[in-house]
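Form P-L/3: holo structure prediction, ligand uridine-diphosphate-N-acetylglucosamine.
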Amino acid sequence: MDKLLIRGGCRLEGEVLISGSKNAALPLMAASLLTGDALRLGNVPDLRDIQTMVHLLRGLGVVMEQPTPGTWRMSAEGPITAVAPYEIVKQMRASILVLGPLLARFGEARVSLPGGCAIGSRPVDQHIKGLEAMGAEVVVEGGYVHARMAGRLQGARVLFDMATVGGTENIMMAATLADGETLIENAAREPEIVDLAVLLRSMGAEIDGAGSDTIRIRGVEQLHGALHQVVPDRIETGSYLIAAAMTQGDVTCRATRPDLLEAVLLKLEEAGCQVDRGTDWIRLQMDERPKAVSFRTQPYPAFPTDMQAQFMALDAVAEGTGTITETIFENRFMHVQELNRLGARIAVDGHTAIVRGTGHLDGAPVIATDLRASMSLVLAGLVARGQTLIDRIYHIDRGYERIEAKLQRLGADVRRVAK
Ligand code: UD1
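OUTPUT (holo model):
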């Protein structure tokens, strides 16, 4: 199994090209099930989660072709098997995103329940509730969600109990082919939802309000093919900016969108960083030890849970004490123990972590526990004295494209070792 070996202490400097967003690409790919025409997506990152979605869609019968790196052509014109098996769904929770499209177009879907994952129980009750409101009959049996609908789904009012990103995406996709109008209230507002709405509209869907907490979808009889570029990855962008901040470096992220990560940029400025931005780039310069920052994770546009672990790494070496409260997932502090193994001083009390900054971390062997947690270990390794060996980096490969190549280009001493 691959590991990452990092020798800390290098100042990061230069430019990094940001990849397309994984979390945007996954629902965009699932949307291919909504039409028999071809869908072409560009700026798709080459990641393990994308491969898992390719595998899942191929298994369902979608013809998946990759004309050039980063481009996918997908066509669901042939016979489709509406079953998403446990073996794939267990690898990636976002597999649940095929549920809405399959049901809307074929009147039936069987999708394995994702089950728990390292960061919390993460149920799909809201997805089910939304589809039931649209007239579907949904039963959970044998570990599978089995949804059926005789005829078209019916437009309905769907009021979510909490702002769920995947739930909003699933219902929005299902509603595009429903009979009548669907109103999603307390919808999630993440940029990935806006990107999905842009694609669906170019496929012929009628959607208003994506990006706000109320989305209105008027169902149409059928959708057609489209061409779409995936939005840049705001979480990857934020992660490289933190790397620059922690190493007191000077890094410019290219091919990104500063407007998608305002809450993160404000926190970086609060930490003492100089942040400059244009339409598609962000430059971060830092020439002193960062100041600790405090925050609560919240749905977009507030501070994202997917940046919590990386900011904890920053606080670990900052001046002062930061208080970090996780409100989205109940168990998203697994990186704390590993960061503490590197010399961080982090105490957890319920959903809150108190991080007392220290002047230096010391390299050690550590274990990556989930995707964003593993990035926090990379960041800590970049500033730790000596050598940090990160095990189970398949977690990183789920969401960070060519991480060691991008970091090396910025001057980091990092390499992948097969042991
Ligand atoms: C997506 C992102 C993930 C990010 C998360 C929150 C993708 C592929 N993943 O995950 O990186 O961390 O948003 O920004 O886009 N919930 C329920 N019932 C449901 C659905 C959700 O209780 O039916 C809860 C979850 O357990 C969680 C909260 O709602 O506590 C938010 O989850 P949700 O927004 O649905 O996350 P995902 O879409 O799975």
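COMMENT: The chain has 14 helices and 24 strands.
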